[in-house]
Amino acid sequence: MKVAYFFREEWEREYVRKRIPDAGISFYRGSLADTPSPDSGASVLSIFVDSEVGEEEMKRFPALKLIATRSTGFDHIDMDAARKRGVVVSNVPFYGENTVAEFTFALILALLRRVEAAHRRVFETDTFSQEGLRGFDLAGKTIGIVGGGHIGMRAARIAKGFEMNVLVFDVHEDKDLARETGFSYVSLDELLGRSDIVSIHVPYNEHTHHLLGREALKKMKDGAYLINTARGGVLDTMALIEALSDGSVAGAALDVLEEEGDLGDELELLAGPHPKEADLKAALANHYLMNHPRVIVTPHIAFNTHEAVTRIIDTTIDNIKAFSSGKPENVVT
Asked: Known catalytic residue: 260?
């Protein structure tokens, strides 16, 4: 079994090598796109979300049998092409429900208590004035959680610790869990209309693309705040800009952005011979959000703790070992 492992940090190489010493692993720093000549004989690709794997990428690996993505989401993989080629895709379904949920509340507190604005004022102006920095209590406020999976449920439990009222929208409802945790299932429209804070925790797919678009954002309670630690494509960027501009959304905290991969390539996007109009608009819109006084943008780090990253790698290693033994685990269908 040959494994092509695309890694980000140097310590991963030794950590993985010690866990599966007998495997023929080739390590490549960066994404698949950063590596012009990986071992074409690899039967296993271990990648992160920054590696897009479509039909053309799969053609580069004729012996490919397994794509082990070190993520929960798998929208960076062409699942139709994988099925057509008989390639199994495994993911890491449970690695950081507490990690992402905790970061969600870090964003909520930073946004509602004006932490970033206060720090910037002190750092940039040496001014200790409190003017314009009054925030809001969480106790007694209503949070609407869009997506009642593992991360959403952890967020609900944390919210109850803040003595918040919790509403949840999900296509699958667990009434026993709702009673146990103390939240209520409601429709998406009701959640948007009643929530002081809306937090997104759904996966990205064809059903959730722009789930919170122009019409949905119009239904939000006046003065509500929006948090996205899920996937950028779940939220319509242009619709959010409109909602921030007219004041219907008071503020937003975003750990993910549409087309976030293009943010480091603005020059190419603007100077290229035929830039895609949609990509250009998305890049410029993201810059608008990054400079907005009522928006916090972070670089997709909700998952990024030592404990969570270690769990991701451990589960991926287990997935590779299980596949090698003929008993695949955590298979995406």
From this structure: yes
Residues 6+ apart with CB under 8 A from 328: 66, 88, 90, 319, 322
Considering its fold, how many domains does the chain have in total?
Answer: 2
Select which of 154, 231, 258, 259 is catalytic: 231
pLDDT digits (tens, 9 = 90+) for 73-100: 898 999 999 999 999 999 998 888 899 9
Assess whether 231 carries a catalytic annotation: yes
Give yes or no for residue 34 having a pLDDT over 80: yes
- Domain co-membership, 169 together with 184: yes
Residue 123, token pair as written in the block: 């750092």
121 catalytic? Reply is no
CATH number at residue 238: 3.40.50.720
pLDDT for 278: 67
> Does the global pTM surpass 0.70?
yes
Quick check: is 329 in a domain? no
Q: Range of 6's domain?
A: 2-95+306-324
